Amino acid sequence: MQNSAEFAQLRTKFRKFVFPLTALFLAWYFLYVLLSVFARDFMGTRVVGNVTWGLVLGLLQFVSTFVITMVYARWADRVFDPEAEALARRMGEHR
């Protein structure tokens, strides 16, 4: 199965979805880290009461993780998993 064209196509589809999403998240994460190191005044600026930009952006890290997880799960349910199951069935028939 691993050497089949269908599997290669499915793997490519997976990578085209997952790699850009991972790169986007890592860029966002490293931006937060870099801001924490090099823009301390900005990160320490209070937005409301004792809430700073650093805290807001840090909490948004968690939010973005959940959003990415939901986006991936929805994509996998609608696009990837049905194709992977169909491929597995076809390959099982060719045993």
UniProtKB/TrEMBL annotation:
Keywords: Membrane, Transmembrane, Transmembrane helix. InterPro entries: DUF485 (IPR007436). It comes from the Bacteria. The chain crosses the membrane at residues 17-39, 51-73. Pfam families: DUF485 (PF04341). This is DUF485 domain-containing protein. It comes from Terrabacter terrigena.
